[in-house]
Amino acid sequence: MPQPILTIKKLTKIYGNNVIFRDIDLTVAEGDTIVIIGPSGTGKSTLLRCINLLTHPDGGEIWLDADEITAKGANEDLVRQHIGMVFQNFLLFNHLTALDNVKLGLTKVKHMNDKAAEAKAFEELKRVGLSDRAHHYPGQLSGGQQQRVAIARALAMDPRIMLFDEPTSALDPELIGEVLEVMRDLSKSGMTMLVVTHEMGFAREVADRIVFMEKGNIVEEGSPDDLFYRPKFERTREFLWKITELYGKKENADGPSAAEDTESNQPAAEENA
Amino acid sequence: MDVANFIKYILQGTVYTLGVTAVALPSGLILGTLFALLAVYGGKTLKQVMSLYSTVMRGIPPIVLLLILYFVMSGEINLSPFWAGSISLGIISSAYQMEIVRGAILSVSAGQMMAARAIGLTRMQAIINIILPQTLRNAIAPWSNEAAIIIKDSSLVYALGVPEILRRAQLIGASSGSYLPAYLTAALIYFALVFASGRLLGLLEKKLEIPANP
Questions:
Q1: ipTM confidence
Q2: Chain A CB within 8 Å of residue B116 CB
Q3: Chain B partners of A69 at a C-beta cutoff of 8 Å?
Q4: 3-state secondary structure B159-175
Q5: Distance of CA A212 to CAs A204, A240, A256, A262, Å?
Q6: From the list A91, A92, A109, which residue is nearest B121 (CB)?
Q7: Pick from B111, B121, B125: which is nearest to A91 by CB?
Q8: Using a CB-CB distance cutoff of 8 angstroms, which residues of chain A are in contact with residue B115?
Q9: Which residues in chain B are closer than 8 Å to A78, comparing Cβ atoms?
Q10: Does 3.40.50.10490 match the CATH number of domain B15-163?
């Protein structure tokens, strides 16, 4: 088996007396798209923040390729260059145009010259379908456009892995699609992705593996089909269908045993869509 | 002495008033910004030192601080009253400007720093490229208030013998016996300066405004 891009061993995070998560193990192979789901307050976002060292874990190890990034003396700024992060609230730099948002890391962190940085930034904006908005400020863009710029900003650094922290949760429903589409294309292009989301349609279609977290533990992980139709734990089934009902758009009942599950567990989902 | 010369004599003090302001305001801004950064991003001890500095400086009347700083400065390094007075006012103002900038830094969301660090910027790069440009924009409105205060407080250097507007009004009032016209003239000049500075900074704020949809 090839070296995984990301290896998490026994990762633990504690705030005061509050255990956010304990002994989390997770491996992400090159090109994988892994979706993390679970109730709020389960530590999913904190897990992502630990991975790019915005928060420091209290125990365990994180390896990026063959380097332990949680080791003492690891260069955090260098680590973060290799790990792209997309936030729930976009967090574009408000005083910079879309193009300059994408460009900044290239000139300041990668020390590219202005011209090359601008060309690359423009390419990344094109990739998320926003080349015509390059000179707009965040305040002039819709939420969906802002999030796509944020994705372009992270991609511009040529990261080894992209982390998405509920990237569509702050968006109006009609703007979610355009962001998911960009993420879908990204996944297809072979980018390694770790996505925290409640978008079950996306998870089922795009994820190689779904990880179900609850109360600071990984309850279960497996392929979308396994988790939706053959979950090992009743709790997984309950959560998946509940969340599908809440967030899911009308989906094709294309799974092997979709019919019976749909019947028993999500009576309202079809009408609500 | 005719009216024109009377007014002209006082008006000549404007050069000193503007000179004092031109030194005190920017030096106060530079010091204030530096102190504000230390107060927000510094360690626990630095935060406490900055908080103490701010509390003490703002708790003493400017004229008292001015006299203390003046006698320290002119005694130790032999500065002219103009420079000693201007720098002293700048130091006094730094405590007030520190509070303005500190508030403006805190009004920039913490997420901006996080996003900057996430793409690999160091803390210092993030402060310079992301935090400060937004902070200083936010600070212009409260800062124009401080600019008005400095223009007015520049009259305090008259106590050091700098021939600025108030000092001249007093001199010509004494020599001509027309105290009230002299002080009214001074008042009018101060008002015009404060009014103009407010307008100018208002224009600057407009010019630097970040475009957004309504």
A1: 0.85
A2: yes
A3: none
A4: HHCCCCHHHHHHHHHHH
A5: 13, 9, 21, 20
A6: A109
A7: B111
A8: 85, 87, 91-93, 150
A9: 120
A10: no
Helix (H) or strand (E) holding B23: helix B14-41
Q: Which of A94, A150, A157 sits opposite B120 (nearest CB)?
A: A157
Contacts of A199 (CB under 8 A, 6+ apart): A168, A176, A180, A247
Q: Is residue B177 helix, strand or coil?
A: coil
> Three-state DSSP class for B105?
helix
Place of tokens 């937004």: B134
- Determine the pLDDT at residue B192: 96
For residues B156 and B81, give the distance between their C-alpha atoms in angstroms, rounded to a whole number.
12
The pLDDT mean for chain B works out to 92
Contact between chains at A81 and B125 (C-beta distance less than 8 A): no
Cα B15 to the center of its chain, rounded Å: 17
Q: Using CA atoms, how far apart are residues A59 and A57, in angstroms rounded to an integer?
A: 6
| C-alpha torsion B182→B183→B188→B194, nearest 10 | 130
**A31: number of Cβ within 10 Å:** 13
Q: What is the pLDDT of residues A39-59, one digit of tens each?
A: 888 889 999 999 999 999 999
Confidence of residue A156 (pLDDT cuts 50, 70, 90): very high
Which of A54, A108, A140 is the closest to B118 by Cβ? Answer: A54
**Nearest chain B residue (CA) to A90:** B115
Q: Give the pLDDT score at A248.
A: 56
Using alpha carbons, select from A124, A118, A116 the residue that is nearest to residue A149: A124
H or E segment and range at residue B63: helix B62-76
What number of C-beta contacts closer than 8 Å exist between A and B?
A: 73
Q: With the C-alpha atoms ordered A68, A72, A73, A75, is the resulting torsion angle positive or negative?
A: positive
- Cα–Cα distance, B84 to B68 (Å, whole number): 11
Look at residue B197 in the predicted model and tell me its pLDDT: 94
Phi, psi (rounded to 5 degrees) for B213? -70, 150
Closest CA to B166 of B183, B180, B188: B183
- pLDDT over 80 at A267, yes or no: no
- Listed in sequence order, the residues at least 6 apart from A175 whose beta carbon sits closer than 8 Å to its beta carbon are A142, A143, A144
List CB contacts of B155: < 8 A, sequence separation 6 or more: B17, B164, B165, B166, B190
Alpha carbon distances (Å) from B188 to A62, B5, B137, B172, B192: 68, 16, 30, 16, 6
